[in-house]
Amino acid sequence: MNTVRMYSTLIQASIRSRMQYKWNFWFSALLAAIINVMDFVLITIVLWKFDSLKGWSIYEIGYLYGTIMMCKAIYRTLANDIHHLEKYLVSGDLDQLLLRPVPLLFALMSQNFRLMPGEYIQGGAVLTICINHMLQSGQVGWSAIPLTCMFIVTGATILFAIGLGTATCGFWLTRISELQTVTEDAARTAVQYPMEIYPMWMRSLLLTVIPVGAANYLPALYILRGELGAWLLPATILFAALFLSATLKFWQFGVSKYQSTGS
Question: Mean pLDDT over residues 115-124, rounded?
C-alpha cells in the first residue's frame, strides 16, 4: 500500500508539472486528435466507396479502430515512458530512478504522465457510433457494451506487456526505437483493420510473436460475429494475465543485468 500511495503521489506531481504549460497541453491534445481523425477519415472514405473490406463492414472496422485506440490511450496514459526507455538508457537518467524508494517500474511509469483526452474522446466517439448502429441493426445485443469495456482493459494490458517486453530488450540493445516501431506502432496500426487482409504468416505473427491481435481482433470475432465460441473470452483474459506475468519477470531479469551508460 505504501508503494501504491507513493506511485499516486508521483503521478500527481507529474500531472502538476505538465499542467504548468496548459496551452501546450491542450494544443498537443488537439493536434493528436486531428491526426488520428484524418487517419480514420481516409479509411472511411475508402470503405464508403467499397462498402466492406473482406466481409467487414465500415462499422465493424470502426469497432476495431475504436477499441485499439482506447487500449493504446490507457496504456500510454499509465505507462507512457515505458515507450521512451531508450532516452533513459542513453543518458544514464535511469540511475536516478533506481535511487527512488519505489520499484523502478513504478518510478518509470510515473514519469511524464499523459492524460491524452483527444484519443479518449475520438476512440469513445467512434466506438459509440459503431456499437449504436450495430445495436439498431440487431447485429449485437446490449451485452456487447460491458464486454467491450472489459476487453478494452484486457487489450490495454496486452499492449502494456508488449511495450514492457520490448523496452526490456533495451537493457542489452540500448537503442530500441526501431524495434518499438515494429512491435508497438506498426503492429497496433495493422490491427486497426481486419486480419483477413493480411497473408497467413503476418496473421500468425500478430497473434503469437507480437500478440496485439488478441487486444481487439479476437474479442471482436466473438462480440460482433459470435465466432469461435464463448470460451474465447476467458481464454483471452487468461492469456493477458499470463503474458503480463511473463514480461514482468523478463523486466526484472533485465533490470538485474542493467549497467549504467551515463557518466
Answer: 80
* Domain presence at residue 170: yes
What is the Cα 36 distance to its own chain's centre?
15
263 lies in a domain?
A: no
175: left (phi over 0), alpha (psi -120 to 50) or beta: beta
Per the structure block, which three cell numbers stand in for 210? 507480437
**Confidence at residue 229, expressed as pLDDT on a 0 to 100 scale:** 85
**CA 96 → CA 36, 100, 101, 130, 172, distances in Å?**
35, 7, 11, 46, 19
Q: Which residues contact 163 (CB under 8 A, 6 or more apart)?
A: 75, 79, 82, 83, 180, 183, 184
The predicted model scores a pTM of 0.87
CA angle 54, 39, 111 (to 5 degrees): 120
Q: Which domain holds residue 165?
A: 2-256
Residue 10's nearest CA partner among 92, 81, 88, 110 is 110
User: Does residue 180 fall inside a structural domain?
Assistant: yes
Instruction: Measure the CA–CA gap between 110 and 10, rounded to whole angstroms.
Output: 6
Q: What is the CA radius of gyration of the chain?
A: 19
Domain count along the chain: 1
Q: How far apart are CA 180 and CA 169, in angstroms?
A: 10
pLDDT of res. 26: 64
3-class secondary structure, 263: coil
In the three-class reduction of DSSP (H, G, I as helix; E, B as strand; rest coil), residue 218 is classed as helix
DSSP code for 52: E
pLDDT tens digits for 32-47? 666 666 666 666 666 6
Rounded to 10°, the helix 58-79/213-225 angle is 140
Asked whether residue 179 is domain-assigned, the answer is yes
Amino acid at 8: S
